[in-house]
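Protein in question filed below.

…
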Amino acid sequence: MSARRGFTLVELLVAIAIFAVLSALGWKVFDYISKVKERNGMHEVRLSQLQDAYQQILRDMVQTVPLTANINGDVESALLLQNGRFSFSKTGVTDPLNQGIAPDERIEYQYKADEKKLYRLKYSNLNQTGQDQPNPSVLLTDVEQFEIVVLNPNELKSWPDASVDLTKLSEMQRLPRGLKMNLRVNNNEYEWLFSLLNTDFLLPEDKTP
């Protein structure tokens, strides 16, 4: 009958070393998978935020109307792009309870570079006293750069054009054909184009025979 033989010290040390190596490799694989899953989750959140912002801006652009606003007694053009300020009149507000809510409102996009945020400010009336408080919401976060350019059809960095006669109501009500938004979010560059040519809502004096 042969004697039973156990593991030698060398064999135990080799086994422990192999186990340690496999454990380290297994932890690295697990850590890598966890980080990839976390990155994918963050990417999905950012993509969802971009899609939501785009859809909101698209709805605003579709509902933009050639109606001037009255801000504390001063008439403001239907769409204003001056010195980084961008505001416009839009329609489409519903009043299902018949509370006398106006169908039109004034919207302003405001980019704050120090916060890296793009805000949407909503005024519930085109006629404001200057003390009206808007309803703010955040369209986008982590915005490193934001610029709006008017397309009519050439690119313009301000609207109304300085060459037009702003004493005429028709010029104040005139809308450009489109907008281009350039933005950088999380080191990714985006260019969004929107059409503003809604001939179904043109005022009578603006329609061509």
The chain is about 30% helix and 30% strand. Residues 53-202 form one domain. The chain has one domain: 53-202.
